[in-house]
Write a structure and sequence with these properties.
CATH topology of the domain at 33-133 and 187-276 in chain A: Aldehyde Oxidoreductase, domain 3
Order of helices and strands of chain B: EEHEEEHHHH
Shape of chain A: globular
Structural class of chain B: alpha+beta
Strand content of chain B: 5-15%
Distance between the termini of chain B: 50 Å
Low-confidence stretches of chain B: none
Oligomer: heterodimer
Largest interface: A-B, 66 and 59 residues
Number of strands of chain B: 5
CATH superfamily of the largest domain in chain B: Beta-grasp domain
CATH architecture of the largest domain in chain B: Roll
Strand order of the largest sheet of chain B: 2-1-5-3-4
Distance between the termini of chain A: 59 Å
Number of helices of chain B: 5
Helix content of chain B: 25-40%
CATH superfamily of the domain at 33-133 and 187-276 in chain A: Aldehyde oxidase/xanthine dehydrogenase, a/b hammerhead
CATH architecture of the domain at 33-133 and 187-276 in chain A: Alpha-Beta Complex
Low-confidence stretches of chain A: 779-819
Strand order of the largest sheet of chain A: 3-7-1-14-11-12-13
CATH class of the domain at 33-133 and 187-276 in chain A: Alpha Beta
Chain lengths: 819, 157
């Protein structure tokens, strides 16, 4: 009997293969945006407003222009096209003209021969401001007598959700007030890019961004150029986490390059980075939970206020998320949620990992613990009793159709082993006590606490947005055999999408050599690298394009076969007919095979006036258990262990999935314990890594993770996005553990040593929750709410050959919202 | 002003502004961009290099201070396609995500293992607490250090 070895394709999905970009990154040869250089390049600089609200009386640029080495200074009047831009509403000036609305707003730009000359030239630009009264408190912004940030008022968006009977009686009620601070994404790579003027009058911009096409959609009108003359290329991205969803230096560098006719690089330093990108919204949340004696949730009432800052950015979508996720991953038959995003004269807030779900998770999980205490029930059991599952109805009326293994996630997390007890005081390594390398304690007044949190997040864009991603795949052969080239505009920001796309191409086409071509706007939009969406969306596009390539190749193969019937497969570089090799793939590639496909997720529907609809495409769930030790005297904390269980659908690259859980947990730990962008009167007071603290290796505990794999129906390979859920639950779990250790209320993050040592009382609301505003904001939620600008470009593209042949309904060709 | 520095074994000369840092000299004047510029105030370790064999943040050293001295950067760890065992461990352990902090971490780990070939976990955490990473949560970086130590002959698993 002969044993036949089936050909296999190495490096496909499910394997933790080395990242495609790991070697150059480890060697230091991978070029990030801030590393770019061009012959004859100028250095751009930006002059920013020091005032949160002021009228610009005049700007004197003569001193800067007289400075040797300065080649250009531009003001708002020099913007040839549209004067404003924005992701959802074009409300943000490229350069401020009559007034500035936040401290840090760009007022003038320039270019000089070297960075030092650029810095000095910026200091020689004199702006005469008439300082105006500013509103820098989110509740004050809703008062009728508050200064108006924009002519249409200070309501950015209001979301009102009514579900069941919000007056339903319950046996037990608990009530709480919660605050979360401004968090910064703090990617290690500062904003940077290089704009090179092109002979056709256009510009080539090499930039670190999360979505090339939506950048172009905003840049081109401001430059007064057609889209095809503005070509964006992805430069190396040093982390993003939402900070690169909005534009920073893109239009400025392009304007300067077009004006001077020379390449212009703009690279922010760390201080300017803090000023030059949006932040996580600070939130104030009032919540009331009612339950039956047996622990069954009856009703949740929530009032949410978030500060959007001076410009819209993605605040409308963030408050949409905060409102629709306010009740947590639980079955809540009756709910009333009012969420408001307001304009203030603070720096704009927008996307950051977790996108509105982080703030409400901190609140709803504290409420679940309060409820457990009031009922005398185990907090984990209480969560299990109310856990969402497939077919559950959400407060928006949306039925959960995909996988929802919430109970499995909770059980797996709770079952992970606990860490050993702390060594007795004075017996352990000082580095193992709170304060660590600071060597401040021998563990004399140590209290251990355990906390638990569950949360969830939408995958991909919501509320009727026709979210899509295009990809082109070309299969060809050279002397070394077959090779697949994948062309996608998906931004690799560190999360590993390029490696995932290569794995998918290997699995689908049976070849091991895959080239990921550099992302640019020469191919269709891939949508944003955000909302944990690229694995599903661009993964789906590459899978579909590979399937089309495969079918075309099979047609070729069948024409060459004497017996063309039977099942054809590709594996290990071979074409197989009913499992038997019929020849190498390369033998059928005298001509390359190429296909482009666009992937769409299931259609979603916007919310109506009562907050009812089908806003989200898919959900991912996570639970974390935190073990902490608190030094009661010093108020210092050591997080001992994080146990994490996450609903991932299917892990396409397990090592990267763990990496996302661990890294996401670190950012949640940061918000729980140290990260706060401090604002006073609208000004950022700690715009540096000396003063804005992010977790170091000494702060991070071991993270023990369990992957719950219940495939998502309809998603490629059943995989869900994995980037955000850990960030959402980590903050809530750690603070729950701190409450368990200290017995204190701790209703604001980040928790400070004063809070833990009992020197500061819990924060109290300065006033009762503001009443819901009249109307929903300056613009009702449009049919394609949420980053609709990206949709325009997709709609303008010609239809692709063969698109829409796939019978799967979520891969519709284009157009329409499916509502 | 003119400075002359021996970088990765070769003497290099450059004209720089007197206030320029060693990091600016390396990146902007000499084109050695492996040392990164994430904070430029000595908080993040992304620009870690050796100055006369001592681990420093290049952003905190003036270019003028390096005049006549020996600088070794991440680019000097290997030649051509080779990977240093620490770099290989970072790749294998999944310790690289966005990669902006990676060269600085690699330099700091090479420095640690040269002084302590078999560091325990508290020692690793202490030695690397001056290097910030925003992506990984550090767990896979710890794995990489242990993997590199074992490959280099220490006894850690």
């Amino acid at each position: 009997m002969s044993v036949r070895t089936l050909p296999v394709t190495r490096g496909g999905i499910g394997e933790s293969v080395p990242r495609v970009d790991a070697v150059p990154k480890a060697k230091g040869t991978f070029l990030f945006a801030s590393d770019l250089w061009a012959e004859d390049m100028l250095w751009g600089f930006t002059v920013r407003s020091p005032h949160p609200h002021a009228r610009i009386r005049s700007i004197d640029v003569s001193g800067a222009l007289a400075h040797p080495g300065v080649r250009a200074v531009l003001l708002a009047g020099d913007v040839p096209g549209r004067k404003t831009y924005g992701l959802e509403f074009a409300d943000q000036p490229v350069l401020a003209w009559d007034r500035v609305r936040y401290a840090g707003e760009p007022v003038a730009i320039g270019a000089a021969e070297d960075p030092e000359t650029a810095r000095r030239a910026g200091e020689r630009i004199v702006v005469d401001y008439e300082v105006l009264p500013a509103v820098t408190d989110m509740a004050q912004a809703l008062r009728a007598d508050a200064p108006r940030v924009h002519d249409f008022g200070n309501v950015l968006r209001h979301v009102h959700i009514v579900h069941g009977d919000p007056d339903a009686p319950a046996d037990v009620w608990v009530e709480g007030y919660y605050e979360t601070a401004v968090q910064d994404q703090a990617p290690l790579g500062p904003e940077a890019g290089l704009a090179i003027p092109a002979p056709d009058g256009g510009v080539d911009l090499y930039v670190a961004t999360q979505w090339l096409h939506v950048d172009r959609q905003q840049i081109a009108p401001c430059l007064g150029l057609p889209a095809h003359k503005v070509r964006l290329h992805l430069a190396g991205v040093g982390g993003a986490f939402g900070a690169r969803e909005d534009l920073s230096m893109q239009i400025h560098a392009s304007l300067l390059a077009l004006r001077t006719g020379r390449p212009v690089k703009i690279a922010y330093g760390r201080e300017e980075s803090f000023l030059g990108h949006v932040h996580r919204h600070p939130a104030r949340i009032w919540m009331r939970h009612g339950a039956r004696r047996d622990g069954t949730l009856v009703c949740v009432r929530a009032r949410i206020l978030v500060d959007g800052g001076a410009y819209a950015s993605s605040s409308a979508a963030v408050i949409g998320n905060a409102s629709t996720f306010a009740c947590g991953p639980y079955e809540v038959p009756n709910a009333l949620v009012d969420g408001t995003a307001v304009y203030t004269h603070n720096p704009p807030c927008g996307a950051m990992r977790g996108f509105g779900a982080v703030q409400v998770c901190f609140a709803h999980e504290a409420q679940m613990d309060r409820l457990a205490r009031a009922l005398g029930r185990d907090p984990v059991e209480l969560r299990l009793r109310n856990a969402l599952r497939t077919s559950s109805v959400l407060p928006t009326g949306q039925v959960v159709r995909g996988s929802a293994p919430v109970a499995a996630v909770i059980r797996r997390c709770a079952a992970l082993p606990l860490p050993p007890e702390a060594p007795p005081a004075g017996r352990g390594d000082p580095r193992a006590y709170p304060g660590g390398c600071g060597n401040v304690s021998r563990g004399e007044r140590l209290r251990r606490g355990v906390g638990f949190a569950v949360g969830y997040k939408n995958i991909a864009y919501s509320e009727g947005f026709d979210d899509a991603s295009a990809a082109r795949v070309r299969l060809r052969a050279d002397a070394a055999g077959p090779i697949a080239e994948v062309r996608s505009a998906a931004a690799e920001v560190g999360q590993g999408i390029h490696t995932i796309l290569a794995q998918i191409a290997r699995t689908e086409l049976g070849v091991e050599r895959v080239a990921i071509l550099p992302p640019d706007t020469g191919v269709g939009s891939a949508g944003s690298t955000s909302a944990s969406r690229q694995t599903m969306m661009s993964g789906g596009a590459v899978q579909a394009a590979c399937a089309a390539v495969r079918e075309a190749l099979f047609a070729r193969v069948r024409r060459s076969l004497a017996r063309p019937r039977g099942e054809l497969r590709l594996a290990g570089g071979l074409v197989l007919l009913d499992g038997e090799p019929v020849g190498p793939i390369a033998a059928f590639l005298d001509e390359p095979v190429e296909a482009e496909r666009v992937y769409h997720h299931r259609p979603t529907r916007p919310l109506d006036a009562r907050g009812q609809g089908e806003p989200h495409a898919a959900f991912a769930f996570a639970a974390e258990r935190a073990v902490v030790e608190v030094d009661e005297e010093l108020g210092l904390v050591r997080v001992v262990q994080i146990a994490a269980a996450q609903d991932v659908g299917r892990a396409l690259h397990p090592q990267s999935v763990q990496g996302q859980i661990e890294g996401g947990t670190a950012q949640g730990l940061g918000l729980a314990l140290m990260e706060e962008l401090q604002l006073r009167d609208g000004r950022i007071r700690n715009a540096s890594f000396t003063d804005y603290l992010i977790p170091t290796i000494a702060d991070m505990p071991p993270v023990v993770s369990a992957l719950v794999e219940e495939p998502e129906p309809g998603a490629p390979y059943g995989a869900k996005g994995v980037g955000e859920p850990a960030t959402i639950v980590a903050t809530a779990a750690i603070v729950a553990a701190l409450r368990d250790a200290t017995g204190r209320e701790l209703n604001r993050v980040p928790v400070r040593p004063d809070d833990l040592a009992g020197l500061a009382p819990p924060v109290a609301p300065v006033a009762p929750p503001p009443p819901p505003p009249q109307g929903s904001g300056p613009e009702p939620v449009p049919w394609a709410h949420g980053l609709a600008t990206g949709q325009h470009e997709l709609l303008q593209e010609p239809a692709h050959e063969g698109a829409g042949e796939d019978p799967r309904p979520w891969e519709r060709t284009r157009g329409g919202t499916g509502s | 002003m003119r400075v002359r520095v021996r970088v990765n074994g070769a003497w290099r000369t450059a004209e720089v502004w007197p206030g320029a840092s060693l990091l600016a000299l390396l990146r902007d004047a000499l084109g050695l961009c492996g040392s990164k510029n994430a904070c430029e105030q000595g908080e993040c370790g992304s620009c870690s290099v050796w100055l006369d064999g001592e681990l420093v943040c290049a952003c905190l050293v003036l270019a003028a201070q390096a005049d006549g001295r020996e600088v070794r950067t991440v680019e000097g760890l290997t030649t051509g396609e080779d990977l240093h065992p620490v770099q290989r461990a970072f790749v294998e352990a999944g310790a690289v995500q966005c990669g902006f902090c990676t060269p600085g971490f690699v330099v700091a780990v090479v420095d640690l293992l040269s002084r302590d070939p078999d560091p325990d976990e508290p020692r690793i955490r202490e030695a690397l607490s001056g290097n910030l990473c925003r992506c990984t949560g550090y767990q896979k970086i710890l794995d990489a250090v242990r993997l590199a130590a074992s490959k280099l002959g220490g006894s850690s698993p």
